[in-house]
């Protein structure tokens, strides 16, 4: 919208070029470009860019808006005079914005307003519907010499080249010409590849023990036609082409009736985010004495002028991705295991910004600032208790359980947990709430106890109660540190692993509570 006008005799002829950055890399590579739209400062581009989206990665995009000179060919090198402005954005920002729609100011031409770029993201629905249907048949041809037939159905979807692929077989109903088959479930993708008008062929067979099943007849339909059975019974004539040719009085080989047909959607993480679900991010940092004096280079909290501490790196790695899904960008941040001024009282959930009534920090930079400020004012002490801060976030999560809010707690710690029983109890309680817990272990300690909390192998339990869902993900930071000292790469690797389970954990909560995504306004 409102692009710079670079053309003397008419308006600009803009084109947008999309560049992407590899994970942990600073190099930009061209991904694709839109069509050129002639003579306009407010172009609406038609060409879409299809990208693979990963919640757990920071996928940086750069959009350059250029003026395509009439004589310039598609591959021509575009000079400085062709540049109309650019915008930098993370894919997560677009998806996390309201209704997947983000407007960003274009910059890059000194002293001039370059207009704005409007980005729209939508998930390619790879036909996620699942169908449940039930059929019965009436007066099928008798095929067995001594008894009646043993009928079953075989479903085929048609392919682009006119061939057919088998996609479902019903069970065999023994010794009847009027079978009623059990309801069955099949993805729409498998039935018709997402094309509602594509032919679905159904063969009716009489089962034989030796595998030489007798063909009774066939009929054809489509997904669209089948779906009409949601409001009425649909009856199909079963026809045997060979019999039809031979017998003049042949009517049919029986009928098949579609008794019921229902459709359910499998929702995705993006469906919930587009429907307005917000991710609320909370940070808890270990201030116990085992970390070492923050002023000493050996301390895990030590930040040199040239390098962030392991704590700061872990915080940035996770926070910078999650913040794209939180509209207010206000993050509660706590410390635990320190003595607080003025009276040296030990606290296991003190606000890093020193404001008990409002522990929110503005953005990840605000959290980092408050963390560094706390290091200068509190005394590192102990013990290492997780339960108070888990219960604090669980309390907030319990306030809103309708699917509009989902909480992610990041705990960064250097070691052995002191309140294991209370922490397990807190996790079991939290597993019934809309929240996930990420634990990042920093430093050289052994973290066996943490592995126990990460319920991948055995579900966490406390006093005979088991966690409803697996909500804890633990990783030791040392496994992700890049040998060459590339901190950007270390952060990208860490985020990729610790955040990978969040979408599934959110979906598991929504599914167990039967919460459907809110429909985004068109």
Structure, described:
With 522 residues, the chain is of the alpha+beta class. It has three domains: 14-120, Immunoglobulin-like (Sandwich), CATH 2.60.40; 129-265, C2 domain (Immunoglobulin-like), CATH 2.60.40; 269-513, 3-Layer(aba) Sandwich (Rossmann fold), CATH 3.40.50.410. The protein is built from twelve helices and 26 strands. The longest helix has 15 residues, at 363-377. The two termini are 21 Å apart. It comes from Todus mexicanus. Keywords: Calcium, Metal-binding, Repeat. Residues 280-481 form the VWFA domain.
Question: In terms of structural class, how would the helical and strand content be classed?
Answer: alpha+beta
Helix content: 10-25%
CATH superfamily placement of the largest domain: von Willebrand factor, type A domain
User: Mind telling me which CATH architecture of the largest domain this is?
Assistant: 3-Layer(aba) Sandwich
Q: How many runs of DSSP E, i.e. beta strands?
A: 26
Any idea what the radius of gyration is? 31 Å
Low-pLDDT stretches are: 72-81
Taken together, the total number of domains comes to: 3
- At the fold tier of CATH, the topology name of the largest domain is Rossmann fold
Shape designation: flat
Question: Number of DSSP helices?
Answer: 12
User: How can the largest sheet be summarized?
Assistant: 7 strands, mixed
Which strand-content bin applies to the residues? 25-35%
The end-to-end distance, rounded to whole angstroms, is 21 Å
Mean pLDDT: 90
* The top level CATH class name of the largest domain: Alpha Beta
Short description:
By secondary structure, the protein is an alpha+beta fold.
């Amino acid at each position: 919208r409102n692009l710079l006008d670079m053309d003397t005799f008419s308006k600009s002829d803009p084109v947008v070029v999309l560049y992407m950055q590899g994970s942990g890399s600073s190099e930009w590579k061209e991904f694709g470009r839109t069509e050129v739209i002639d003579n306009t400062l407010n172009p609406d581009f038609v060409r879409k860019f299809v990208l693979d989206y990963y919640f757990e990665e920071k996928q940086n995009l750069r959009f350059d808006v250029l003026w395509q000179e009439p004589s310039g060919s598609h591959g021509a090198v575009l000079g400085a005079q062709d540049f109309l402005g650019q915008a930098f954005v993370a894919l997560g920002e677009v998806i996390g914005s309201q209704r997947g729609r983000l407007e960003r100011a274009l910059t890059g031409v000194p002293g001039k307003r370059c207009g704005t770029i409007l980005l729209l993201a939508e998930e390619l629905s790879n036909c996620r519907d699942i169908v449940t249907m039930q059929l019965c048949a009436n007066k099928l041809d008798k095929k067995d010499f001594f008894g009646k037939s043993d009928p079953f159905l075989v479903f085929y979807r048609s392919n682009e080249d006119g061939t057919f692929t088998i996609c479902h077989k019903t069970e065999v109903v023994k010794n009847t010409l009027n079978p009623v088959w059990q309801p069955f479930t099949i993805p729409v993708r498998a039935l018709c590849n997402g094309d509602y008008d594509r032919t679905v062929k159904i063969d009716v067979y009489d089962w034989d023990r030796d595998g030489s099943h007798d063909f009774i007849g066939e009929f054809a339909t489509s997904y669209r036609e089948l779906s009409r059975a949601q409001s009425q019974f649909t009856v199909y004539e079963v026809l045997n082409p060979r019999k039809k040719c031979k017998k003049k009085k042949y009517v049919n080989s029986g009928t098949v009736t579609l008794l019921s047909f229902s459709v359910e959607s499998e929702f995705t993480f993006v469906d919930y985010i587009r429907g307005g679900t917000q991710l609320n991010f909370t940070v808890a940092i270990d201030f116990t004495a085992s970390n070492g004096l923050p002023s000493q280079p050996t301390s895990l909290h030590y930040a040199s002028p040239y390098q962030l501490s392991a704590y700061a790196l872990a915080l940035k790695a996770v926070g910078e991705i999650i913040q794209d899904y939180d509209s207010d960008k206000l993050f509660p941040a706590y410390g635990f295991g320190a003595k607080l001024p003025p009276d040296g009282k030990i606290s296991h959930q003190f606000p890093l910004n020193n404001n008990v009534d409002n522990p929110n920090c503005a953005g990840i930079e605000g959290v980092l600032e408050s963390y560094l400020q706390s290091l200068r004012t509190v005394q590192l002490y102990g013990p290492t208790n997780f339960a108070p801060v888990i219960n604090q976030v669980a309390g907030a999560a319990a306030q809103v359980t309708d699917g509009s809010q989902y909480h992610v707690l990041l705990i960064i710690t250097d070691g052995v947990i002191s309140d294991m029983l209370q922490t397990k109890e807190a996790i079991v309680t939290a597993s019934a709430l809309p929240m996930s817990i990420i634990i990042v272990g920093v430093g050289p300690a052994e973290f066996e106890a943490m592995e126990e909390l990460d319920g991948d192998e055995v579900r966490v339990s406390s006093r005979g109660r088991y966690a409803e869902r697996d909500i804890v993900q633990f990783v030791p930071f040392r496994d992700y540190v890049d040998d060459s000292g590339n901190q950007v790469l270390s952060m990208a690797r860490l985020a990729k692993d610790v955040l990978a389970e969040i979408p599934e954990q959110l979906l598991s909560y929504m599914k167990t509570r039967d919460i459907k995504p809110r429909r985004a306004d068109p």
